[in-house]
Design goal:
single chain, alpha/beta, four-stranded mixed beta sheet, globular, disordered N terminus, binds zinc ion
Length: about 290
């Protein structure tokens, strides 16, 4: 991506953002990237939202901000034009990165499939909005002719200079888990009143996009000791190393394994086996059948 493609705008309210400069860059470039840049990299525009979609999106953003405040973080404004709803055909052609994804979040925008299943839409929007609230970083390189900017970090997921992609799976687990906190908050303030049956709410609260990832993180850290919970969510939002440092201290043998889990189920199964042998692997797989 070259400098001429940049220019969709700044996101002043994005407090949990930091640029990563690769190599020497000018003062001008440093200044230009002090504030988060957002870019509609797929260059697609949204369907007009239905009344239902509008209601759910506004409620999810409000709930997300309430939760930031409650946890001692600054709330942030998310603008309507950062959320792009597309039909399947346009999504498949322009946006899709992996099989079965309901949406994705890149460079400060959410791209979401228009979903006829309302529960699915609610699950997907809460997941993608959680990504949007999480820590955000772009890398910036500069030479005489141009600047180039690229994805660097979203939540836990970063792109290392060696070209690999650490913490991809960890980030999806954090996003799924946080999205459920957001959905509970939406329920608490009555956002789902008269919209969903008890059964549908069950789906909304317990259906995960990355169920195996969630089970693994819960089993290895969050259910094992409460001391992991706050650093886990804190690092997701502020981009700090608190959680990974704690893992390094408490379970050094697990750090590399967790960082290497990608977005596939196979990588979770492999990690579970490496951490806890047959026993943990079978437990994670069983959890998945139960829910
Ligand atoms: Zn995701």
């Amino acid at each position: 991506m070259s400098a001429k493609d940049i220019g969709n705008g700044y996101w002043k309210e994005k407090w949990n953002y930091a640029p990563k400069f690769i190599g020497p860059v000018s003062e001008e470039t440093k200044n230009d990237f002090l504030i988060a840049r957002v870019m509609n990299v797929h260059q697609v525009s949204s369907f007009i939202w239905t009344t239902f979609e509008k209601h759910i999106i506004a409620a999810a953003i409000k709930a997300g901000n309430n939760l930031l405040k409650v946890n001692g973080f600054k709330p942030m404004r998310i603008f309507d034009n950062q959320i792009i709803i597309l039909d399947d055909e346009v999504y498949e052609k322009n946006v899709k990165m992996s099989e079965n994804e309901g949406g994705n979040c890149s460079f400060g925008y959410i791209f979401l499939r228009k979903n006829k299943d309302r529960c699915h839409f609610v699950i997907d929007i809460a997941h993608e909005i959680s990504h949007l609230f999480s820590f955000y970083s772009v890398s910036v390189k500069e030479n005489k002719e141009c600047r180039s900017i690229d994805f660097y970090q979203l939540g836990f997921h970063s792109l290392s200079e060696k070209g690999n992609s650490p913490c991809f799976g960890l980030n999806e687990a954090a996003t799924d888990l946080w999205s459920k906190v957001v959905l509970r908050e939406m329920e608490r303030v009555g956002a789902f009143d008269n919209l969903f049956s008890k059964e549908e709410k069950g789906r909304i609260f317990y259906e995960f996009a990355y169920a195996l990832h969630v089970h693994l993180i819960e089993e290895v850290f969050l259910n094992k000791s409460e001391k992991f919970i706050w650093p886990f969510f804190k690092s997701y939002f502020d981009g700090s190393n608190d959680f990974l440092e704690l893992v390094k201290q408490e379970m050094p043998e697990v750090l590399r394994i967790i960082k290497n889990v990608d977005n596939t189920q196979e990588s979770v199964v492999k990690a579970a086996y490496e951490i806890g042998g047959d026993k943990l692997r079978d437990k994670i797989l069983q959890e998945n059948v139960k829910k």
